[in-house]
Amino acid sequence: MTSGADPAANRRTAERLIRRAASAGAKLVLLPETWNLMAGPAGVAAGAEPLDGPSLGLVAGLAAELGIGIVAGSIGERVGDGQRVCNTAVVFGPDGAVAGTYRKLHLFDVEVGGRTYRESATVAPGDAVCVADVGPLRLGMSICYDVRFPELYRRLVDLGATAVVIPSAFTARTGRDHWEVLVRARAIEDQVFVLAAGQVGRHPDGSESYGHSMIVDPWGVVLARVDAGVGIAVADLDLDRLADIRTQLPALAHRRRVLGDDSGRGPTP
Asked: What pTM value is reported for the model?
């Protein structure tokens, strides 16, 4: 998606794309980060919604109507006194009920391409990991900048994840060099399917998102992608292949716990 400052217009686009994906046979749909509103930090904070607001209400209704699971990318969730929001992803099962809620752990406070980003100025970090069962999949939840923190994904795998989702609004500057490398690395090292849906193009605040949404298998093979612009990527996830990869190359079973000894001499097995 190329979301903008009009939540109603963004919801119409999301509904159109969800219905298109369902018509193509999708049983699980992932929307990108802040799919309902891309209007800069102040705009997202001002337009924050509660979890029972119109954006997630639309997604819950579509999940129930179409009989599919939907990960509502993320929205700005109104919390507390409203001074800051949470960047929150919600998973809906095919009955329209909430299967899981995740609040972004790692906030994007960086300087890239001559632009300063301070997500923490308006967004409060989450404090818990989340896995959710949707059909045959156990989904591990993450959002955008989280992809740079591999320990999160290993924790999700330890909790049984067979697929992880990465709804994103990855910057064009970092996306060109890092997006596919990071997404495929998370799939390979954790032997999971990775579903990565991104914002694309220019937004009202002048930011530009990289796009290139993709679905990657546990061997790191890109099964489907949106090469340019707005669109959908659809692929079959073969859970037998996941089991075979984990059996034939049992890297997860070969892990060794390494502890530091506090002496400054480095890790001791």
From this structure: 0.93
pLDDT for res 25: 97
- Is the pLDDT at 241 greater than 50? The verdict is yes
- The catalytic position among 77, 86, 130, 144 is 144
Residue 32 belongs to some domain of the structure:
yes
Is residue 174 within a helix (H) or strand (E), and if so which, with residue range? helix 172-190
Is residue 48 within 8 A of residue 85, CB to CB? The reply is yes
CATH number at residue 102: 3.60.110.10
Q: Is 27 a catalytic residue?
A: no
Q: Is 144 a catalytic residue?
A: yes
Q: Which of 77, 104, 130, 208 is catalytic?
A: 104
Closest by CA position to 100, among listed 127, 140, 157: 140
Residue 266 is assigned to a structural domain of this protein? no
**Is 267 part of a structural domain of the chain?**
no
How many structural domains are present in the chain? 1
Please indicate whether residue 33 is annotated as part of the active site: yes
